[in-house]
Amino acid sequence: MCATCGCGPNSHHHDHSHDHTHETSPGKKVVDVEQDILLENNLLAQRNRGFFEGRNILAINLVSSPGSGKTSLLERTLTDLKGELGFAVIEGDQQTANDADRIHATGTKVTQINTGKGCHLDAHMVLHAVQGMKLQADSVLFIENVGNLVCPAMFDLGEQERVVVISVTEGEDKPIKYPDMFHSSTLCVINKTDLLPYVKFNVEKAKEYARKVNPRLEIIELSCTSGEGMDQWYEWLKSKVLQPV
Amino acid sequence: MHELSIVMSIVELASAQASHHDAAVIEEIELDIGCLSGIEMDSFDFAWKQAVKRTILENARRTVNRIEGRALCLDCNTDFTMEHLYDGCPNCGSHLSQIRSGKELKLRSLVLPD
User: Fold this and answer.
1) I want to staple A68 with a disulfide (CB 3.0 to 4.6 A). Which of A64, A220, B86, B112 is the partner?
2) Cβ–Cβ contacts within 10 Å for residue B65, how many?
3) At B7, which CATH number?
4) Of A33, A120, A151, Cβ closest to residue B109
């Protein structure tokens, strides 16, 4: 059994909330549980968050549908800002270590989580990934979630910022088709803007939809290929990093 | 299909409660699932059928309270029904709002043999 969080092959938990029982009909009793179903995940997420805060690590959860360019955005960022900020990456995919290999090639510390049939990362997976990483204080940790615009929305990993990436080869109505993800994110990156002359994507419409779901959402348009807009993304990133005192 | 993870969490929470009360079976289970919680009920029902097999919840009668989404407009203070996260205020059209209900995802109560 894991000494940190109690997980194991036959894990069961001994902590119980103070519930309230009363009789309804003879031979039956009602137990008022009143417990959040995501409680377990949320507690572990808060634990991760405390760990990150204590070491001044900026944890960023990157979410998108498959193929929006999360890994390409990371590759370029890790290369361009090498020497300026310290980085580490957790890669989440159902199968293969292909993305971890791409990140590793930039010289950045990386851990791959394979979720198997799982469609999202959860706080428990991140907790264990972090345990094996020896993260440096005052650094940035990118957590690249499984490519999926639905399921990862519900699972807090303990991140400070959630960045949703969409690309101009997708439909501009993604924000209202998958509102949960845009509602829970703090920044939206619109990627692949170099392809705008060749596709029908309406950037203004996409931004309007995104702000309908989340008026506080910041939006940055960029292209990892041409480099256009990357400065804005780097500025945003640096503004979120707390300088050590 | 995060609904499967959710159902598995419910099975875990309910089993822990049942063993705490020395119950070998759960007769009824009551859940709150808000309309803005991100749960697709068809997927949830499908996942439920599979995930409760050979668990303490296998034969439990399930009640789901769907909690309506309600939001407060931060511009004009109107309290309104929010069906989708992108719904604006029906009074002033603003999208700056605070969700007051509909995000619930809660194990409310269990009925156990005494």
Assistant:
1) A64
2) 12
3) 3.30.2320.80
4) A33
